[in-house]
Design a protein that fits this description.
InterPro entries: DCC1-like (IPR007263), DCC_oxidoreductase (IPR052927). A four-stranded mixed β-sheet has the order 2-1-3-4, covered by helices on one side. It is α+β, with helices and mostly antiparallel strands. The chain has one domain. The termini are close together. α2 links the parallel β1 and β2.
C-alpha cells in the first residue's frame, strides 16, 4: 500500500473516492477535474487505503457499493447522493445536476445502481488507475 497522506490535510476537504479499475469512474473523475475550476475537489482510488484511514469505520458500507463515494464535512455519501453532491461542486452547467436531489432517494439510487451494475459494459475496465497531469497530481491521494 502506498504511503497515506497526512489525514489532517484531507479532513476538511471534499474527497471523491472512485474505482481505479473502472473506465466509467475514471471518466467521471476526468469530468470532475475539468469542470472544477476552483480545484477544491480531491480524489483517491478506493484501492488506495485512504478511505479506511480517513473515514470512521462505522460510516463505511460493508461491502462497498459499486459506486463512487464522496466524503465531505465529516460525512460519507454513497450512490446517487454522492454523485449529486459532487455535481454541486462542479462549474455551471454541470452544477445544475444537483437539483435532482429533489427526486426521492429510493428512485435515484435505483437508477444509480442500474448504471453502476453495468459500468464495466458501458466504459470497460482498466488494470491501473489513471495518471493525473503534473498540475492535477496534488489533488490525488
Amino acid at each position: 500500500m502506498k504511503n497515506l497522506p497526512d489525514l489532517e490535510q484531507l479532513q476538511d476537504k471534499p474527497v471523491v473516492f472512485y474505482d481505479g479499475t473502472c473506465g466509467f469512474c475514471q471518466g467521471s473523475v476526468q469530468i470532475a477535474l475539468k469542470y472544477n475550476a476552483k480545484q477544491h475537489l480531491y480524489f483517491a482510488a478506493l484501492q488506495s487505503g485512504v478511505l479506511e484511514a480517513l473515514v470512521p469505520k462505522a460510516q463505511i458500507p460493508n461491502p462497498l457499493p459499486d459506486s463512487m463515494l464522496f466524503y465531505e464535512k465529516g460525512r460519507l455519501y454513497t450512490e446517487s447522493e454522492a454523485a449529486l453532491r459532487i455535481a454541486g461542486h462542479l462549474d455551471f452547467p454541470l452544477s445544475i445536476l444537483a437539483v435532482f436531489r429533489i427526486i426521492p432517494l429510493s428512485f435515484r439510487n435505483f437508477v444509480y445502481r442500474l448504471v453502476a451494475k453495468n459500468r464495466y459494459r458501458i466504459a470497460g475496465r482498466t488494470e491501473a488507475c489513471l495518471l493525473p497531469s503534473p498540475e492535477q497530481r496534488a489533488r490525488f491521494f
